[in-house]
Design brief:
heterodimer, A: 220 residues, MetI-like fold, elongated, B: 2 domains, four-stranded antiparallel beta sheet, 8 helices, Methionine ABC transporter ATP-binding protein (chain A), ATP binding (chain A), transport (chain A), nucleotide-binding (chain A)
Chain lengths: 220, 253
């Protein structure tokens, strides 16, 4: 049976590469844009430093809208945007666009939640020391919330992998697409099971690593 | 050094108003240790927090070291706050940074180079008697040790004023004495003006040179001890007895 699977070796590696690319881009988007959006959500919230109802409402609704879309419909809905950003709506890079949009919304919410757990007293201490907004965020908020931010990123990454599995619809490929096309549609059950095992190991490894890092980071 | 003029603060929620501080004026001279006592909800913490504008008064002016904080821009206010240290009942350390990491924060924010930073951090950790814990994380320390770290953090930027919000209220009596000794030592060594909010009478009698009594948002007494002395328990009980009937030595709650 193993020999049988091995004949697809290069396709499997290729699919894993596509998954890594889509998820990698999504993680980058989550960090580069989701983290600031989540921070802004936190800062603009009622009772926080920069309470701003309008900005909060806009961000809050945007994040909720993206997250409430059935993901496949979000992919389809974003096709014109994707075409505008990367020039095509088909392929792995194109598939990374809707995935990144979801990633930003998803992670920003988790960032907001982690930051809300930072004790108010620490923020007060920071203000009393004359911290600027940026210093407050970098030297206090992110430092105290870092293990939550790490756990949130772990949860997000696993969700992104799950979302990435349906990207066959726009030719994004990836391990999930491979499992569907070879395993399911061609009735090669062994292939399907094999790819599911790969995903399982991948997710376990990510969760284990993320939890471990969060534990190391947490000195509270 | 500190001059509050007719400051008021009302907290408004959707269904209630609470006047925490009602037209209070207070002057604290340079080098004094000023105690603010009163029962819970009397407005003493709010009054203290108005000195560095953590609580912005609705009315009135706050003048510290000749500068009007209430009319400053946000940027200017941040700079002014760097010459005022503050410590809290719950210590409020950054628990994910080591002891020396915590003390270094104000210096990092002021852009002081690394080498000088570590020297200053050591100097102040030594001063509060906790230099051997420099590389520990706060969660490994006792309450008294954590408060010492907080004191070092508040002092490292060499402030002229140290604001203390119930700094010993979560500590046992023995530890309290240790912390009060450190605060007295700071006052004598650096000439830092100390304002301390407390509900413990012995805090006042063991270190304060002047004291204010608050009740229902108003300042009902201010008293200055004879030169070189701290407030005596007789004076203190005379001032507080009229409202509460508690005796010195008891906790004033």
């Amino acid at each position: 049976m193993f020999d049988y699977i091995m004949q697809y070796q290069s396709e499997i590696w290729h699919a894993i590469g596509e998954t890594f690319m889509m998820v990698g881009i999504s993680i980058a988007a989550a960090l580069v844009l989701g983290l600031p959006v989540g921070t802004l959500l936190y800062l603009c919230r009622k009772g926080q430093m920069y309470e701003n109802r309008v900005l909060f409402a806009i961000l809050n609704i945007l994040v909720n809208v993206v997250r409430s879309f059935p993901f496949l419909l979000l992919v389809v809905f974003l096709i014109p945007f994707t075409r505008f950003v990367v020039g095509t709506a088909i392929g792995t890079l194109a598939a990374s666009v809707p995935l990144s949009i979801m990633a930003i919304a998803y992670y920003s919410r988790l960032v907001e939640q982690s930051l809300l757990e930072v004790p108010k007293g620490v923020i007060e201490a920071a203000s009393s020391m004359g911290a600027s907004t940026l210093q407050m965020i970098v030297k206090f908020l992110y430092v105290e919330a870092r293990s939550g931010l790490m756990l949130g990123l772990t949860t997000s990454t696993i969700s992104f992998i799950s979302y990435s599995t349906v990207m066959g619809i726009v030719g994004g490929g990836g391990i999930g697409d491979f499992a569907i096309r070879y395993g399911y549609q061609r009735f090669e059950t062994e292939i399907m099971i094999f790819t599911i095992i790969i995903m399982l190991i991948l997710v376990q490894a990510i969760q284990y690593t993320g939890s471990f890092m969060a534990r190391v980071l947490d000195k509270r | 050094m500190i001059s509050l003029h007719q400051v008021s603060k009302t907290f408004v929620t959707s269904n209630s108003r609470f006047q925490a501080v009602d037209a209070v004026s207070l002057d604290v001279g340079a080098g004094e240790i000023h105690g603010i006592i009163g029962s819970s909800g009397a407005g003493k913490s709010t009054l203290l927090r108005m000195i560095n504008l953590l609580e912005r008064p609705d009315e009135g002016t706050v003048i510290v070291d000749g500068e009007d904080l209430t009319s400053m821009t946000a940027k200017h206010l941040r700079e002014a706050r760097r010459s005022m240290g503050m410590i809290f009942q719950s210590f409020n350390l950054v628990n994910n940074r080591t002891v020396s990491g915590n003390v270094a924060i104000p210096l990092e924010m002021a852009g002081i180079p690394k080498k000088e930073r570590s020297e200053r951090v050591r100097e102040y950790l030594d001063f509060v008697g906790i230099v051997d814990k420099a590389d520990e994380y706060p969660s490994r320390l006792s309450g008294g040790q954590q408060q010492r770290v907080a004191i070092a953090r508040a002092l490292v930027s060499r402030p002229k004023v140290l604001l203390c919000d119930e700094p010993t209220s979560s500590l046992d009596p023995q530890t309290t004495i240790g912390i009060l000794d450190v605060l007295k030592h700071i006052n004598r060594t650096f000439g830092v003006t100390v304002v301390i909010v407390t509900h413990e009478m012995n805090v006042v009698t063991s270190m304060c040179t002047t004291v204010s009594v608050m009740e229902n948002g108003s300042l009902i007494h201010t008293f200055k001890a004879d030169k070189g002395n701290t407030i005596s328990s007789e004076d203190l009980s005379r001032m507080t007895a009229t409202q509460t009937g508690v005796k010195v030595g008891e906790t004033y709650v």
